[in-house]
Amino acid sequence: MAQPMPKLLEAALESVSEAILLVGPDGTIVWLNAACADFFGPSAAQWMGRNAKDWAHAQIAGESQRETLVGVINGIIQGKAERHTETLEPVGPNGLSCQFEISRLGPSEARESLVLIRVGDVSAPSALKEATDRMRDFQDLVIRVLGHDLKTPLQVLKGYLDLARVDLDAPPGADRNKRLRLYFDKMDEGLASMGLLLANARAMSRLAMKPGERVPLEPIDLTRLLRQVIALERPLAAAAGVTLEEKIAEGVRADALKGFDSAFSNLISNGIKYSPKGSKVTIELSRGPDGGALFHVADQGPGIKEEDRRKMFVKFERLGRDDTVSGHGLGLSIVGTMVALCGGTVEIASRPDGARGTVFTVKLPPPKPAA
Questions:
Q1: Per-residue pLDDT tens for 339-361?
Q2: Which among 346, 366, 341 has a CA at the least distance from the CA of 253?
Q3: 3 state SS of 329
Q4: Which one, of 369, 199, 213, 209, lies nearest residue 291 by Cα?
């Protein structure tokens, strides 16, 4: 590849069980993940740097199927199409029935966009819909992270780094120091935004598994984890003029999956996002009567209608709480999924004091005794 693979994208592509190939503008295969060996044999890595047409002819039986696939790849490279999904068989040395989803990785106007080929095993009839849904979820993640969300915090960092470089040549003094502190605060804000995006990407990569597949849980010190998350969220709160008020009990633990910090991050950042300047977001962590964990985030935002609350954890559902607030709603869907996989629940309610705002409550079961 002309440029090294972005680490975030590489981690996402390696996290799935389906075979992933990236084809460059010249039609050569520029990257493939480890799962390709399960579909195309242990020597799948030999196709790196070779033409996608040769790969298709070696792996797909049936001339018409091969030519169709190659034509689709070329069409997407040339900008004549954006996406194509088709089921082909037999594929590879094991004669699998596979669903191929081929799409452009990057904006349609970009001349150097890559083509992403994702191959899922749908040999079992019931696996077809499952594979389709998971492919859509995965592509949503890639497009969201690379196509939009990382752009803004990276621009913030670059802009304020450039300003800081200019000010370093200015005469020293209180005014210059004040400006530099402002620049550093803004860069902290950008880094906090990127941290949330990375946490979401890690979470999505761990959630990109087959339905029914068991998720490994491990004992986690929620008290320590929450304090780490709050420290990362403070720059965003300061930039929004919102105060974070915390009431955190010591030694609260639970069995959770890796990446559970994204559940905390998304709920806290959501509270910051929808609370007006000068307000506060209250964060509480305690033990419930059964010994499980109770986590509350109360904001002073516009509130959520009763009929809308059941939709809150649907991916990309923002419910129009505030049209001036950016975001796509992916974060709350991650929260709902992660908490459910840990055996917990998420509840949404109005503030008990009758004031304006919303309270999110996460309940996790008590941790299992150590063996």
A1: 888 889 999 888 887 788 999 99
A2: 366
A3: coil
A4: 369
Least confident of 72-81, 198-207, 276-285, 340-349: 198-207
- Count of structural domains within the chain: 3
Of residues 147 and 84, more confidently modeled = 84
Residue 1 located in a structural domain: no
Q: Which pLDDT does position 310 carry in this prediction?
A: 65
Is residue 97 classed as helix, strand or coil in its secondary structure? Answer: strand
How many C-alpha atoms does 19 have within 13 Å on its Cβ side?
A: 23
Q: Which domain holds residue 172?
A: 151-207
Angle between helices 174-207 and 330-341 (to 10 degrees): 50
Model confidence, pTM = 0.51
CB-based contacts of 358, cutoff 8 Å, min separation 6? 271, 274, 298, 299, 301, 303, 304, 348, 349, 350, 351
Respond yes or no on whether the N-terminal peptide bond of residue 125 is cis (omega within 30° of 0). no
The per-residue pLDDT for range 198-219, each reduced to its tens digit, is: 665 555 555 555 444 556 788 9
Say if residues 194 and 156 touch (Cβ distance below 8 Å). Answer: no
Q: What does the alpha-carbon distance between residue 130 and residue 132 come to, in Å, rounded to a whole number?
A: 5
Domain boundary among 109, 135, 161: 135
Same domain, 131 and 191: no
Q: DSSP state, 370?
A: P
pLDDT reported for residue 294: 96
Let me know if residue 224 belongs to a domain: yes
Condensed to tens digits (0 to 9), the pLDDT of residues 258-272 reads 778 888 988 998 899
Please say whether the dihedral angle defined by the alpha carbons of residues 247, 249, 250 and 254, taken in this order, is positive or negative.
Answer: negative
State the residue for tokens 């196509």: 147
- Residue 108 DSSP code: T
45 domain-assigned: yes
Assess contact for 312 and 331: CB atoms under 8 A. Answer: no
Contact 18, 209 (CB under 8 A): no
Neighbour count for residue 278 (Cβ, 10 Å): 10
